[in-house]
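As described in the Methods, two query proteins were run sequentially through the folding procedure within a single session, without resetting any intermediate state between them. The first query and its resulting structure tokens are shown here.
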Amino acid sequence: MARPFNAMYGGYGAYELKSKYQRNMITGTLFAALLVAIVVGGAYLYTVLTAEDTIYMQPTVIKTIADLGPPPTISKPKPRVDITPTAKAAPKVGIPKPVADDEVVEDDVVIASREELAEIVAPDVTSPIDQDGGNIIVDIPDEEYLPEPDEFVPVEIPAEMIYEEVPDYPRLARQAGMEAVVWVKALVDKGGNVKKAMVLKSSGSRAGFDEAAVAAAYKCKFKPAIQNGRPVAVWVSYSVEFTLTEAN
């Protein structure tokens, strides 16, 4: 008698599979539902745990312009300066260098006192006789500073002419009936004398007006300019008019 193939080898056939189909279907469905529930529940639990408490603020009602307050400032704040003291670097100590014997300073060097230095630099000139028996003559020239023509010299009181030398009228200009005006620039020293003179603005002719005006400038006399209560040398400018009259 022949035996069925499934019974011979102990396998499952369609009958056995059908008998367990419903149980496997229920088990799979429950497992899938449980997995979905775990995922959804975990997501919900994460949302609840990470959610922040909502704080409801009372709104501010602005009824007038005064409720707005001052506008914000537009000026930039001043930068803060770090005033923390910095540590000073330690001084560097160098290695002494050898020097020649003639440059070595002895420890027993005697330094001259202030009185001794004063006698060396400026000897006593109150006595008319020096230590050697000779006479002491003080002859220090008083050198006056003379400014340049374009140099500005501040003065409190400007120089004032107190005597003007009348220049010689050029002979050829008189014969030709020529008249002119010459501007002279003169250097007046502390004594009111003219040390230098030059033509500031020429007459424009070669009749000798310029030379006559400069020659007469050296014979003019001025009241010197004053600065800090003392006379100073300054440059002054003035005009010299050459006019033909009946006396000329």
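Immediately afterward, the second query was submitted; its sequence and tokens are:
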Amino acid sequence: MSKLDLRKELKRFYSAKKKPEIIDVPPGKFLTIVGKGEPGGEVYSAALQALYSLSYTLKFKCKAEDRDFTVMALEGLWWWDDPSLFDLENAPAREEWNWKSMIRQPDFVTGEMLEEVSQEVREKRGPAVDDVVLETFHEGLSAQIMHRGPYSEEGPTVMRLHEFITEEGYRMRGRHHEIYLSDPRRSKPENIKTIIRQPVEK
């Protein structure tokens, strides 16, 4: 049985350089869950547990049907109620942050498959499972940069990305996007790698 490795097939969109760049991101299927509250807080943690549990349960279901695949990295969209805010320095208190957590899925994962495994996962992970949906997300034209270090020190990297966007004649749209390539439980803080991405338009 072959194993689908989306990290290799989509390497262009799950790697980044220390120097900002413009890329065009194609659409893809994602399990997503939306919420509001402090990153790492109770609501956020419950949402991630539901998201990961469903992703791995779908993986094992597909593996039993001879369609194994790797579970992709966690991604997060972040925004605030004021749509004009893109700057972390002017962000409201962390409990006011809105987020959409996401894990990319193979194209052969369907809504019917999600419904089939949801009851099993709900019994283990609680009602947050009901808030997870399968949807297509198309980010399109975006600017991105690699941040290496603690999440709490992303500010200067984000500023570099925003300055690059302006200098290249683009303007920001959509939501601040982070792709978490490292497991913070297993990586030294200074070695954590995160792709910072911002959708743009001319």
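The first strand starts at residue 3 and ends at 4. We note this only descriptively and draw no conclusion about the first query from it.
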